[in-house]
Amino acid sequence: MSTSNFALSLDFTGFTGTFTNTSAVLTVSGSVTMGSGMTMTAGSGGGLTINGAGTLTCNGISISPNTVIINAPGLTVQLGGAFIGGGGLTITAGTFTTNNYSITIAGNFSSSNSNVRTLNLGSSVITLNGGGSISLTTVTNLTFNVGTSTFKCLPGITGMVINSGVNLNNVWMANRGTLQINSSITFNDIKVDTAGAILIIGQGITATVATLTIAGTALGSLIGIQGQVTGSQSTISRATGSQSVSWAWIKDMAFTGGATFSASNSIDVNNNSGITITPPGGGASGMLYVPNLEGT
Question: For the segment 154-182, what is each residue's pLDDT rounded down to a tens digit?
């Protein structure tokens, strides 16, 4: 398929061949069902837009256009199973309901515009397996039901960037990359648990958390917590209780909000406040590499 096409629905049930979308934008006004034994490929211009009410069911098959776009004003598009996308996922208008199914995409998760739209994420785990960003910057006319959802970045991926005007539930950096938070919002949990991974808080940004899960394993496998700009503190805030992290290096960070913050077996690199940092037993002997990520 190499020209723009329109369909009332798209049903590949029983199809076991290859559907190739070389350069067209395919617009569907209803449900899309992939065949469990098929293959879908796409060129650089291939795309899928759903502009009507319906159910999107992948049946274990990756939808391989660049980005799947939900643009169904006043209507609802829902998932009928786990969603697998070879590109990103953009919700432009209408209601998108995950029905608690997982979402795995190779691009950005985006809904940043002023159209009337609703996102119902339930308990879905939304995995960025190609790096990318969570882009929810413009939230005019957005109803965002975050539920108990988790945004996750897979191992082997370089990083994940969060630009959001709405609060998120859980975010999880599950690889040796960077998780950069560029918005002052609230999280249920920020989790970074892979040796060598780095949590970067943008300049002037306050990330408010209920919990902060930072757990390295040894001096040679530390996790970084860093303000974006050298010499300028960024902030992590928690209102109550005690918050501990372990095996981390910490730089240009302020810890505020009323909770008691501590870091065991960790390195106080420079310019930190509001946290008690205890070095590894015997001190931090040896060479420790802390990357310069200013402007990342």
Answer: 866 678 999 999 999 999 998 888 999 99
Q: What is the per-residue DSSP string for 220-245?
A: GG-EEEEESSTTS-EEEE--SSEEEE
Give the C-alpha separation, 85 to 42, whole Å.
Answer: 12
pLDDT, tens digit (0-9, with 9 covering 90-100), for 11-61: 999 999 998 876 678 899 999 999 999 988 876 666 889 999 999 999 999
What does the DSSP 8-state code read for residue 196?
A: T
Three-state secondary-structure class, residue 4? coil
CB 42 within 8 A of CB 65: yes
Handedness of CA 83, 194, 146, 123 (dihedral sign): positive
Boundaries of every domain in the chain: 1-175, 176-283
CA distance 235 to 205: 6
CB 255 within 8 A of CB 276: no
Give CA–CA dist 108/128, Å, rounded: 7
Task: Please report, as a single letter, which amino acid is at residue 207.
Answer: A
Length of the chain: 296
- Assign 3-class secondary structure to 49-102: EECCCEEEECCCCCECCCEEEEEEEEEEEEECCCEEECCEEEEEEEEEECCCCC
d(CA 97, CA 76): 7
